[in-house]
């Protein structure tokens, strides 16, 4: 492995998004005393600016793809896809945050800085090609997210949420790191490509150590993506965290965690795929089933969406079980579609919940269709997409995942997964029923008119959902091209 | 521009514009919906005019790529069966607008918007020649109907709407799995290409494989038809739906299922279809008799008509799985007949409900003395529904029974019981509602039909007579298509069900 002693400019360009995000985050903290007096919206504007710049930088970096810093980073189509995705999620998180933070008198620079750091960590994760780098990215992203989950520090539930997330999260990271240690011990390298080479090479290490390493890393990653049986934290954390943060947690870190999941298991551990396939198969089925059936019983919308996000993690794991490039592309597409529909749905919840997040029940959505037709129509699009009704991104994503699964002869997983999605229709329909078929509730009556930021936070993901459902080719082709990871 | 694409674009544009109309003037929404649905109907009349009746294949084809990976095409075309079902949809939509004119007072704009979206989905189902596209329309038509039932229905509307959605969804995910499986095997979603591959032997399914695929498709369609014992969503949905919803549901949406069986199941999975035929026929006959018996004891008019649909659709399934030319022709004709006559029954029951605000039979009686014209039209519809010669249902039922008799005489005997029972429950209904002493409530609340209602009902009555007297206007393109389906259904496996034409009539056809 050649190690360069000085930084070369191409490396910097490939690392530019992370640099921009970190600088902007730090700048926000430094400028806090100056800006706080002037305008409470300045932080939001600045972080949007930073995210937009990072978005441009990610796309720009892809003009000249390749490894950076001696192969520690790999800026390929896959990394760019996920960088754009997590930055996009960041933008869609900040838009509804303006109103939310104002409502809770909690406009500080930390919120935005932490968000930017978390996104920087995720960008690092998705472009890392080395286990240590992945671990660093994971930690940067996670630690920022732990604090964000407890951001409303006077709220009991937020505290519980943060503590739970922190304790269980660090435990999971520990598992992951333990797995990394095993890999380093048995192969002598942490570079994903070299690990792959070591496992296929003539002096392949003992399958026991490699198996243990893969299992440990699987546990860590399954926790991060809230896949069963490591999903228990998700409902409590999602319910307690401030709603925009919940939206963020359920889309950004999850997408990034899936990205490294795919990268590690489809490159390094690809030689032992026959070993881990049953593991992922079981976890996928369990996640879908637990998520969907538990969601049937929820009355709190945030918990409901939390369980639904567990189920959706299961669908993505189905794509991973397929162990093919088509499966990887399907997972990428699904995560993009999922980010749109889920962030959008949470934006509606954050809009409706009111001060102190009083209104979080399914019943509180009653009559929204009469009081705020636009909000209700947007939520309808997200819910139909979550159900998987055609002409939405959610449908096409599911279609593509199960197509990949059937190509890999996973007939039973496909049938059970699809039946699961029919079960899921029930709890999404409950929200639709509430919105359109009941008399307006207190929450719907008292809902403020949509602000500009919120309208954008609803309309953009709705458009994204529809575009992904009607013209999926563009994203699909890109995902298809970038799914053959460097092995 | 491709005529079929125009027919899809009109209701879709109508839907989008209807959403933009001001909420404050419901009249604008009504007028707009009527105008656009009439326009769609008029344009759709060009289809039979330009249709080449001598050809069996698809016509008005348009095939453009839509999604590149996997290759999905926007591929639309109609054959002799889809043609009439499409026309049925465009014919009934303006009628539904008319009958909802006054009965829908709440959220008028959304109602008519959903009605147009429903029309879009239904037209799409009957013209899609790409399996993926078909599935898209299949599901898209589900959403507006869900809202129509759930928002504008009667008391138990939410239960009915959710049940309807979940039943259909559960069936269609299986179909989706089968569609993907077929794609992975064949590498295409294009239905004509798939049939070509099957015909030429480039694609063939092992018997076991074929059976599972057939079942996956069949269950999705059977839920929609509905075939006994999957019918339980139907009485709920029909009874709770607003009149226009019941009409579209009974007249067109149920046909999506029978159309799917005829159009997809038989040609794609010929030997599995024939292997399952005896079982399915038994279910169909149970449906015919059970539906009729349950109808007979219903105290609620809408529920009575709903169960009669189970019975009538049993005939359609029987006709299809008789695997005879006569049976298939009769099945298709019966689909159209049921669309017209049951649609008319729901319209008329809706008119009664609008006046008296009750669906209970015991709240009526003596209606013919206060509303003689309404009674007359209802009588014609009743007679059509029970299969009186010179009215439409007779032709269909006759063909189905004859086809069934050719395949297996016993089937025809049992199915014929259903015809007798249908006369019992329909005439008994008529007697209880229209004859006898008119009560106070009936006398004061039941004016005769007004001009708008006439406009909605007359076209239906005209069609009943036309289809009953001169079926040759409709049957030739149907026969061409069903003959093709039959020949496709014999691909690569020897025929098991008896198809010996042992009467003069059969030989002549």
What's the count of strands of chain A?
2
As for the number of domains of chain A, it is 1
Rg of chain A over CA atoms, rounded to whole Å, is 21 Å
Strand content of chain A: under 5%
The average pLDDT value of chain A, as a whole number, equals 88
Q: Helix proportion of residues of chain B, in percent?
A: over 70%
Report the biggest beta sheet of chain B as strand number plus sense, adding barrel if it closes: 2 strands, antiparallel
Q: Globular, elongated, flat, extended or rod-shaped: what is the shape of chain A?
A: globular
The SSE string of chain A, one letter per element, is HHEEHHHHHHHHHHHHHHHHHH
Rough shape of chain B?
globular
Please trace the helix and strand order of chain B, writing H or E for each element: HHHEEHHHHHHHHHHHHHHHHHHHH
- Helix share bin of chain A: over 70%
The order of strands across the largest sheet of chain A is: 1-2
* Rg of chain B, alpha carbons: 22 Å
- Low-pLDDT sequence parts of chain B: 492-509
- Structural class by secondary-structure content of chain B: mainly alpha
Features:
heterodimer; A: 487 residues; mainly alpha; globular; B: mainly alpha; 3% strand; disordered C terminus
3D architecture notes:
The complex is a heterodimer of chains A (487) and B (509). With 487 residues, chain A is mainly α. Chain A has one domain. Chain A is built from 20 helices and two strands. Chain A has a two-stranded antiparallel ribbon. The longest helix of chain A is centred in the middle third of the chain and has 32 residues. With 509 residues, chain B is mainly alpha-helical. Chain B has a domain of 184 residues. Chain B is 74% helix and 3% strand. Chain B is built from 23 helices and two strands. In chain B, strands 1-2 form a two-stranded antiparallel sheet. In chain B, a hairpin with a 4-residue loop joins strand 1 and strand 2. In chain B, helix 8 crosses helix 11. Chain B is globular and about 70 Å long. At the A-B interface, helix 16, helix 17 and helix 20 of A face helix 6, helix 7 and helix 8 of B.
């Amino acid at each position: 492995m050649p190690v360069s002693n000085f930084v070369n400019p191409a490396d910097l360009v490939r690392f530019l998004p992370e640099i921009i995000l970190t600088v902007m985050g730090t700048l926000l903290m430094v400028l806090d005393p100056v800006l706080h007096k002037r305008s409470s919206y300045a932080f939001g504007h600045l972080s949007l600016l930073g995210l937009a710049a990072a978005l441009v930088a990610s796309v720009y970096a892809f003009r000249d793809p390749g490894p950076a810093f001696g192969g520690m980073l790999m800026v390929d189509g896959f990394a760019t896809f996920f960088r754009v995705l997590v930055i996009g999620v960041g933008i869609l998180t900040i838009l509804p945050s303006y109103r939310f933070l104002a409502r809770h008198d909690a406009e500080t620079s930390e919120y935005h800085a932490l968000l930017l750091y978390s996104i920087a960590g995720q960008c690092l994760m998705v472009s890392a090609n080395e286990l240590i780098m992945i671990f660093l990215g994971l930690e940067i992203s996670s630690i920022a997210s732990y604090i964000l989950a407890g951001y409303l520090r006077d709220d009991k539930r937020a505290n519980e949420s943060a503590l739970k997330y922190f304790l269980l999260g660090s435990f999971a990271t520990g598992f992951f790191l333990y797995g990394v240690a095993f890999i380093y011990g048995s192969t002598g390298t942490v570079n994903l490509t070299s690990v792959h080479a070591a496992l296929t090479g003539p002096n392949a290490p003992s399958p026991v150590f490699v198996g243990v390493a893969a299992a440990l890393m699987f546990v860590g990653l399954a926790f991060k993506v809230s896949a069963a049986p490591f999903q228990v934290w998700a409902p409590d954390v999602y319910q307690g965290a401030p709603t925009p943060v919940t939206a963020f947690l359920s889309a950004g870190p999850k997408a990034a965690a899936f990205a490294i999941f795919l990268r590690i298991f489809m490159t390094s551990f690809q030689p032992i795929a026959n070993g881990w396939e049953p593991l992922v198969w079981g976890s996928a089925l369990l996640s879908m089933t637990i998520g969907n059936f538990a969601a049937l019983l929820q009355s709190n919308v945030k918990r409901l969406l939390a369980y639904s996000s567990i189920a959706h993690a299961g669908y993505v794991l189905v794509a991973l079980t397929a162990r093919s490039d088509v499966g990887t592309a399907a997972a990428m597409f699904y995560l993009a579609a999922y980010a749109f529909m889920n962030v959008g749905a949470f934006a509606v919840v954050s809009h409706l919940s009111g001060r102190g997040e009083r209104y979080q029940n399914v019943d509180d959505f009653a009559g929204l269709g009469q009081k705020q037709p636009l909000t209700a129509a947007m939520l309808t699009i997200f819910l139909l997409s979550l159900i998987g009704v055609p002409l939405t991104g959610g449908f096409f994503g599911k279609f593509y995942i199960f197509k990949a699964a059937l190509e890999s002869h996973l007939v039973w997983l496909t049938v059970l997964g699809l039946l699961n999605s029919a079960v899921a229709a029930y709890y999404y329909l409950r929200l639709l029923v509430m919105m359109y078929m009941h008399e307006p509730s207190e929450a719907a009556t008292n809902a403020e008119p949509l602000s500009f930021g919120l309208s954008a936070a609803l309309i953009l993901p709705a458009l994204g959902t529809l575009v992904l459902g009607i013209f999926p080719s563009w994203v699909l082709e890109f995902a298809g091209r970038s799914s053959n990871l460097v092995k | 521009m491709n005529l079929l694409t125009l027919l899809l674009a009109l209701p879709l544009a109508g839907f989008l514009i209807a959403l933009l109309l001001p909420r404050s003037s419901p009249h604008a929404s009504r007028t707009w919906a009527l105008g656009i649905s009439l326009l769609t109907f008029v344009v759709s009349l060009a289809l039979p005019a330009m249709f080449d009746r001598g050809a069996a294949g698809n016509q008005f084809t348009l095939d453009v790529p839509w999604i590149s990976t996997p290759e999905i095409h926007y591929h639309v075309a109609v054959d002799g069966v889809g043609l009439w079902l499409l026309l049925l949809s465009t014919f009934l939509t303006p009628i539904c607008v008319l009958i909802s004119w006054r009965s829908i007072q709440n959220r008028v704009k959304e109602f008519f918007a959903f009605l147009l979206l429903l029309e879009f989905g239904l037209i799409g189902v009957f013209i899609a020649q790409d399996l993926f596209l078909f599935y898209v329309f299949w599901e898209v038509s589900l959403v507006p109907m869900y809202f129509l039932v759930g928002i504008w229905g009667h008391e138990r509307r939410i239960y009915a709407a959710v049940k309807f959605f979940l039943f259909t969804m559960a069936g269609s995910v299986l179909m989706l799995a089968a569609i993907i499986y077929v794609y992975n095997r064949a590498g295409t979603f294009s239905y004509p290409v798939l049939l070509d591959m099957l015909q030429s032997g480039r694609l063939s399914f092992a018997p076991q494989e074929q059976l599972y695929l057939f079942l996956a498709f069949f269950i999705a369609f059977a839920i929609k038809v509905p075939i006994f014992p999957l019918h339980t969503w139907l009485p709920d949905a029909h009874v709770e739906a607003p009149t226009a919803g019941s009409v579209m549901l009974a007249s067109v949406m149920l046909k999506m299922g029978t159309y799917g069986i005829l159009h997809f199941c038989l040609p794609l999975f010929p030997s599995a279809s024939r292997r399952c035929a005896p079982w399915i026929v038994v279910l169909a006959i149970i449906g015919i008799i059970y539906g009729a018996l349950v109808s007979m004891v219903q105290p609620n008019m809408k529920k009575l008509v709903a169960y009669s649909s189970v019975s009538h659709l049993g005939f359609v399934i029987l006709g299809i799985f008789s695997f005879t030319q006569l049976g298939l022709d009769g099945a298709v004709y019966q689909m159209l007949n049921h669309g017209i006559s049951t649609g008319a029954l729901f319209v008329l029951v809706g008119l009664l409900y609008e006046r008296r605000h009750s669906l209970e039979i015991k709240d009526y009686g003596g209606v013919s003395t206060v509303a003689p014209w309404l009674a007359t039209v209802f009588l014609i519809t009743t007679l059509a529904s029970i299969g009186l010669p010179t009215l439409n249902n007779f032709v269909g039922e006759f063909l189905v029974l004859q086809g069934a008799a050719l395949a297996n005489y016993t089937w025809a005997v049992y199915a014929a019981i259903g015809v007798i029972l249908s006369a019992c429950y329909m005439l008994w209904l008529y007697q209880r509602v229209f004859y006898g002493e008119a009560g106070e409530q009936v006398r004061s609340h039941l004016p005769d039909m007004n001009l708008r209602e006439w406009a909605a009902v007359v076209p239906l009555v005209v069609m009943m007579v036309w289809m009953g007297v001169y079926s040759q206007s409709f049957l030739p393109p149907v026969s061409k298509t069903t003959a093709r389906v039959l020949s496709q259904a014999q691909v690569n496996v020897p025929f098991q069900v008896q198809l010996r034409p042992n009467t003069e009539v059969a030989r002549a056809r």
